[in-house]
Specification:
With 146 residues, this protein is an alpha/beta fold. It has four helices and seven strands. It has a single domain, classed as P-loop containing nucleotide triphosphate hydrolases (Rossmann fold, 3-Layer(aba) Sandwich). 25% of the residues lie in helices and 32% in strands. Strands 1-7-6-2-5-4-3 form a seven-stranded mixed sheet, with helices on both faces. 34% of the residues are buried.
């Protein structure tokens, strides 16, 4: 199933992200794709808002992984947010324990996931953000069908 949206602001992208997050199930692993500046981190900000994460979201480009604790319907949840931009090889990715972290959070979100197609079968949803003009973004959400 595929959904497509056009966002005209960072706040609108966050609104789409919050609505998207409301559809996720525990265990979902989300691939976030798009070129630099396309809005992956802003979209992720909306997701963390939905899950009531208290920590301020930042792009995990330097730490590679941020772990956010939040809640859903009064129950605690853990979000793993990866940024694979600086990872250069599959060996390096496996060396940081990516497999274990990917599957150990309640929800996992991976920016630049498309750099490692070997993991594509694990993702339950792919969100692709792209420039659609200087101030707008295209957001395409593709869910795996069973």
């Amino acid at each position: 199933m595929t959904e497509e949206f056009l966002s005209f602001s960072a706040e609108e992208s966050c609104q789409y992200a919050r609505r998207f997050a409301a559809t996720l199930l525990r265990g979902d692993m989300v691939s976030l794709c798009g070129e630099l500046g396309a809005g992956k981190t802003e979209f992720m900000r909306g997701i963390t808002e939905f899950f009531n994460c208290d920590d301020q979201l930042s792009s995990p480009t330097f730490p590679l992984l941020n772990i956010y604790e939040g809640s859903l319907d009064g129950e605690p949840v853990v979000l793993h947010h990866f940024d694979l931009y600086r990872i250069n090889s599959l060996q390096e990715l496996e060396g940081i324990g990516f497999d274990e972290y990917l599957s150990s959070g309640d929800f996992s979100f991976v920016e630049w996931a498309d750099r490692f197609p070997e993991y594509a079968p694990l993702y339950t949803v792919t969100v692709t953000l792209a420039y659609a003009g200087s101030e707008s973004r295209s957001i395409v959400i593709k869910r795996k069908t069973s």
